[in-house]
Write a structure and sequence with these properties.
The protein has 601 residues and is mainly beta. It has 5 domains: 2-123, no CATH class; 127-212, no CATH class; 314-458, no CATH class; 473-527, no CATH class; 530-601, no CATH class. It is built from 1 helix and 68 strands. It has a 4-stranded mixed β-sheet with strand order 20-19-21-22, with no helix packed on it. A hairpin with a 6-residue loop joins strand 45 and strand 46. It is elongated and about 125 Å long. The two termini are 76 Å apart.
Length: 601
Amino acid sequence: MFKYLIFILYIKIFLSASCVQGTNFCSRCNPVTKLCEKCEKEIYIPNENGGCSLERKCILGNNHCLECQEDSILCKTCEDRYFQDEIGGCSYAMDCEISYKGECLKCQEDFVLVGQNIKICKSIYSEDLKNCENVNSVNGLCDKCKEGFYLNSGDKKCTNTQNCHFSSFGVCNKCSPNYYLDKREDKCKEQNGSLLHCAQTVDGQNCEICDDDYYFDEEGKCTSIKYCAKEGLYLKCQKCFDDYYPTVSGESCTKEKECYEGNKDLGICLKCKSEYYIDFQDGHCKSNREENDFKYCTKSDNECSECSYGTYLGNDKHCSLSRNCMESYNGVCIQCIDGYHLGKDNICSQVENCIYTDFYGVCTECDDHFYYNKSSKMCEEEKENFENCKSTTFDGSICDKCKKDFYYNKTDHLCYSNKEEGDFYKCESKSELGEYCISCIKGYYIGNIDHKCSLIEGCDISLNENECLQCDSDDWCLDLKTKKCEYSYVIEDENKKCYFKCNITNEEGTSCKECIEGYTLKNGLCVDESHCKEKNEDGSCKKCITYDDDPYYHCLNKDFGCVETYFDFCENCDNVLDFDICSKCFEGYKQNEKGECVEIN
């Protein structure tokens, strides 16, 4: 029955209305109702016959009108939230000239129709649209300004100030990012020098207002850190205001000298340095090294609430070096929770007779005359073929690691003493055929050539555990005075520059005697001449090759020639402790906040 009524209704519509686009002043027809949806500009309203009516006429109850004027032309009273239009109806939009069923079709003169679901009439003289040429019909904001004006990137308003972000009635209030407002000329200029991160200046030299989240330092420059007196590279504070201290990270200033991490906007401490805890009751950093209830604590509010890395909060609100600890004293566990056993390392383990466990609570060593069976995950009594054994393979069938002072023989899977001087002194594991050592006990290093254990890292051939005869030439330098191997890639002490790219030093250990391949010995130092592109008259390097010539970045160092660096476009880097600190950029480049060389715009 309902479908039949709908069908009858459509038949009536089709018989009574016949809209033809472009005729009867109609510019757009509805294909379903056959009524006009939109009339030509000078026509007032679509009528029920599928065309457009030229006459103004108020019909009571039609187009949301409740009461017509005496002449029956305009509406006198509209429904709530509706406004009178100019043709006798009512519209959602104030200042509407033509509406249909409450929706505005055309605004009055000097108004534009904007909006998507609910359309309104907006004055072309409003602050948003002043000096605007094209208005966005959806959001009601300006898309294009009149000639001689610029569209702000922030509020979409028009001003005669280029690079303006926010304005009021054509006057710029705030410039776009990386620009400051020069009040003398009412212009937005690019931030640089003392006006970096500045939002506004009165005299063009001294900053009056900093960018958001930036603050004045002692020199009147803008810094990203509150209470910072002088900012350095990488947005780190070099010096704070009086009574404030830079945090370890250098990213904030706080009242606490021992502060590691602070709130850069408030100047309060959030996290203290290692071996200190933050007391939230008074906001101060206090030592957690002392023998008291706060040893190893990092956060406290009258009682410890958080422990330092590697320690755990027990039921007694004290920090312990052991997980699953119920009661501790100065970080040492004295009682475990039910189901756990206290080992000699004062760590709680679920394995009985376990004396040492790792970070994850897995047993690493059992008590005397016991070994750890990885299959049963228990400490079992020593038996034949498991004497002096520390742990087994995962199937528990054979030993795979020996106890202290014993090394593992992969041939017969037994443990032998490593305390006597010889090829297996301090050895931990023997090769498959049993002819040489392949790993040393903790604290000792295996030689890549002689396969002997020594206390010297990077040693290939050792005379004994304390003296090296030959180092790994790629990474280490042999100091003939100490007979030790020193790292040759990074200069950690300026007095030991001779180790850099050096193979062997002189007898006094004060200068290099032999450089690694590719470097030239000059004045006791190893210099890279292979990456020099242009030389001075005296033969010294003047300019290094660029990235276009070689897939690595190089910069010129006065001591070591052309050295590899992290940054591109760097011409000189004279800081021997860090070649990634640039001393001079290429012409046309400058250093940014990160110390990188970037092109000057």
